[in-house]
From TrEMBL:
Transmembrane segments: none annotated. One of its GO terms (biological process) is SNARE complex assembly. Residues 1-10 have a biased composition (Low complexity). Signal peptide: none annotated. Residues 1-21 are annotated as: Disordered. GO terms for cellular component: endosome; lytic vacuole. The gene is gb16525. GO terms for molecular function: SNARE binding. This is UV radiation resistance-associated gene protein.
Length: 372
């Protein structure tokens, strides 16, 4: 066997491709067992070196496997963490899904209730539609009748002709009552001319009607120069003068005749009918009879009685007893007030027989009466 030098006996270390695989010189103090090195024979050195090289290669393989296992373990841990994160996310999604399912269940219940309510309202609406349909048909029929009535009113014999006839009737009534006013003129006592003085009276509207009021102090009125004297039912024997008694009776006869004619021309049945007899006229009262001794005023309330019969009251004065005559004048004024209300006017009061009669004739003679 040839002796080989150390260079041939010791194999050269393989070149390291990486920086971590190169041989590095370290101090002896850092090498384990450097103080008591193990001595090998020269013949065993090559075997020991081969064994060390084999151990070094095995150690490197173990390190590689360790690194590979560490990488695999890290990958597994990362996958585990990702799995846990996904599991948490999935759990949250399940929780939200459960809440959504519960909400959907509540919505289904509400939808069911709303569907039932809508069905009930639909039935009610159907009933209302049928009712409206019937009402619409009825309204259509009524509208057709109304159009037919309008055509009849606007025709030759319709509303226009009626208005013309009514205006002609009022003109005729005005003409006839004007004649009555000329026959029985009611004027102030100091007026001698048949023409009424300008500015003495004026016609004004009161509560939708026309009233005749004096511009100055009210003057006593008379018919054909005869004045109705004021009476006092508390005094007896007031008319001691027979001439004064006859004048007042004549004035009441004139007024009664004028009222009777005006009522007949206006076609108004009087509430208290008149039985004309000139200065011996009577007025009838269909109300329950009263005890005349209990009447203290012609404008007072009439006490009720048990008997029901028509009574006549004289529109004239005969003797000292004036109670019945005063009540007759009160009833005559009520008839004049009835005629005033018929034409839309108001009375001047219960003690103004001639003033109310004058107002009645003047309103009827005005243009407003015809055009109204």
């Amino acid at each position: 066997m040839d002796d080989r030098g150390p260079s041939s006996a010791t194999p050269d270390p393989p070149p390291a491709d990486e920086e971590g695989d190169r041989w590095v010189l370290v101090p002896a103090s850092e090498v384990e067992g450097a103080d008591a090195p193990k001595v090998f024979n020269w013949e065993d050195l090559q075997q020991e070196l081969a064994r060390l090289w084999s151990l070094s290669a095995a150690l490197q393989a173990a390190r590689d496997r360790k690194a590979d296992l560490a990488a695999r373990l890290e990958s597994a841990l990362e996958a585990r963490r990702a799995f846990l994160q996904q599991d948490n996310d999935l759990s949250q999604m399940r929780h939200r899904l459960q809440e959504h399912s519960d909400h959907m269940g509540d919505l289904k219940i509400c939808t069911k209730k709303l569907s039932d309510d809508v069905e009930d309202q639909r039935e009610q609406l159907a009933v209302r539609i049928r009712t409206l349909t019937v009402a619409g048909k009825t309204l259509g029929a009524a509208h057709s009748k109304l159009e037919e009535a309008n055509r009849l009113l606007s025709g030759e014999n319709g509303h226009g002709r009626l208005k013309n006839l009514e205006q002609k009737l009022r003109m005729r009534q005005q003409h006839m009552i004007t004649q009555v006013a000329h026959v029985y003129p009611v004027r102030p006592l100091d007026e001698q001319s048949p023409t009424v003085k300008r500015g003495l009276t004026s016609i004004i509207k009161t509560s939708g009607a026309e009233s005749v009021l004096s511009n100055g102090p009210q003057k006593p009125l008379a018919i054909l120069g005869l004045q109705l004297s004021k009476l006092s039912v508390k005094k007896t024997g007031y008319f001691s003068d027979k001439t004064e008694f006859q004048k007042s009776s004549t004035v009441l006869g004139y007024a009664a005749h004028a009222v009777s004619l005006i009522a007949s021309y206006l076609n108004v049945p009087l509430r208290y009918p008149l039985r004309f007899g000139g200065s011996r006229s009577y007025i009838l009262d269909h109300a329950p009879s009263v005890e005349l001794s209990s009447i203290t005023s012609i404008v007072g309330s009439v006490p009720p009685s048990t008997s029901m019969k028509t009574m006549e009251f004289p529109l004239f004065f005969d003797g000292p007893e004036t109670t019945r005559s005063s009540y007759a004048i009160f009833l005559l004024n009520k008839d004049i007030e009835q005629l005033l209300n018929y034409i839309g006017a108001e009375s001047l009061g219960p003690r103004h027989v001639l003033a109310n009669l004058k107002q009645l004739t003047m309103i009827i003679q005005s243009q407003h009466y015809v055009s109204n």
